[in-house]
Each structure stands twice: as structure tokens, then as C-alpha cells.
Amino acid sequence: MARDSCLARITAGVAVGGAVGGAVGAVYGTYEAVRYKVPGLMKIRYIGQTTLGSAAIFGLFLGAGSLIHCGKSY
Q1: Which sequence ranges are marked TM in the entry (predicted)?
Q2: Which one-letter DSSP state was computed for residue 37?
Q3: Average pLDDT, stretch 10-26?
Q4: How far is residue 12's CA from residue 72's CA, in Å, rounded to a whole number?
């Protein structure tokens, strides 16, 4: 297959954005949980929410960028 389909490019963009966003969200969530002294097991919930939220946003934007870029051929 010489060229990837548009759907494959968008899927790859969403996957990469989700991975990068999840990594950034985990680091930032851990930092914030320690900084604001979140008590006990609430730290795990806070870090999880930050990780998932960041992964969703990064994935959405990278997928949208891939969709916009999909129509262009260079």
C-alpha cells in the first residue's frame, strides 16, 4: 500500500496524541497532587483524572490536525 488512508492517519494521530497527553498529564497530575498535598487515596484519583483529561484533549487536537492535514498532498 503506497499511501495510507485518511482514516489510518487520523487514528494514528489520535493514538499518538493520547499517549503524549497521558504522559504529560501523569507527570503534571503527580506534581499537582504533591504540591497541593492531596490526602491519601485521593491522590490516585486526582492523578487519574488529570491523565485521562489531558490524554483526551491532546488526542482530540492531534486527531483534528491530522484530519485537516489529510487532504493535502505534498
Answers
A1: 12-31, 51-70
A2: T
A3: 97
A4: 17
All 3 cell numbers of residue 63?
486527531
Per DSSP, helices labelled H in the chain are 6-35, 42-70
Would you state the pLDDT for residue 63? 95
23 vs 3: CA distance, rounded Å: 30
Report the predicted TM-score, pTM, of the whole model to 2 decimal places.
Answer: 0.86
- DSSP annotation of 36: T
Dig out the grid coordinates for 70 from the structure. 489529510
- Mean pLDDT across the stretch 54-69? 96
Residues 25-31: contacts with CB under 8 Å, at least 24 apart: 25/50, 25/51, 25/52, 25/53, 25/54, 25/55, 26/50, 26/51, 28/54, 29/54
Contacts of 52 by beta carbon, 8 Å cutoff, 6+ apart: 22, 25
